């Protein structure tokens, strides 16, 4: 493309550019419509977040209940094991004492 030499050529080029660009520019109505759509979308997202928050709270409560139940069950099993170990240890100690007494008689 050659460089325009006259003012008239330059104006013609600028007018052509403007005619090309102007139809693509947003109007006040376009911007107002886009703003209204964004406001609606943001409100929908907030509603979705609130709904998810409620679901997560409910899930958290269920999980806490399950964890508490499992914890109580495990504590019961651990206590039962401790008693069995205590009884077993006592039985072993009694058996060892009996063997020691019997061995002492032979000495």
What does this structure look like?
The chain has 107 residues and is mostly helical. It has one domain (27-106). It has two helices and no strands. It has helices spanning 7-21, 28-106. The protein is rod-shaped and about 135 Å long. The model has no long low-confidence stretch (mean pLDDT 91).
Question: Secondary structure elements and their pairing?
Answer:
Blueprint: H1 7-21, H2 28-106
Keywords:
single chain; 107 residues; mainly alpha; 2 helices; rod-shaped
Strand content is under 5%
Q: Give the biggest sheet.
A: none
| Unreliable spans | none
Number of helical stretches of at least 4 residues: 2
Query: What order do the helices and strands follow?
Result: HH
- Domain count: the total is 1
**Computed CA radius of gyration, to the nearest angstrom:** 43 Å
- By secondary-structure content and strand pairing, the structural class works out as mainly alpha
The shape, in one word, is: rod-shaped
Let me know the average pLDDT.
Answer: 91
Give the helix proportion (percent range): over 70%
Determine the N-to-C terminus distance. Answer: 124 Å
Give the beta-strand count.
0
């Amino acid at each position: 493309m050659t460089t325009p030499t006259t003012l008239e050529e330059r104006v013609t080029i600028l007018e052509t550019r403007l005619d090309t660009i102007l139809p693509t520019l947003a109007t006040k109505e376009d911007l107002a419509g886009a703003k209204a759509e964004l406001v609606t979308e943001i409100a929908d997202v907030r509603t979705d977040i609130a709904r998810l928050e409620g679901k997560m709270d409910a899930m958290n409560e269920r999980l806490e209940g399950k964890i508490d139940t499992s914890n109580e069950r495990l504590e019961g099993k651990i206590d039962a094991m401790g008693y069995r170990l205590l009884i077993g240890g006592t039985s072993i100690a009694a058996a060892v004492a009996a063997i020691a007494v019997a061995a002492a008689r032979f000495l």
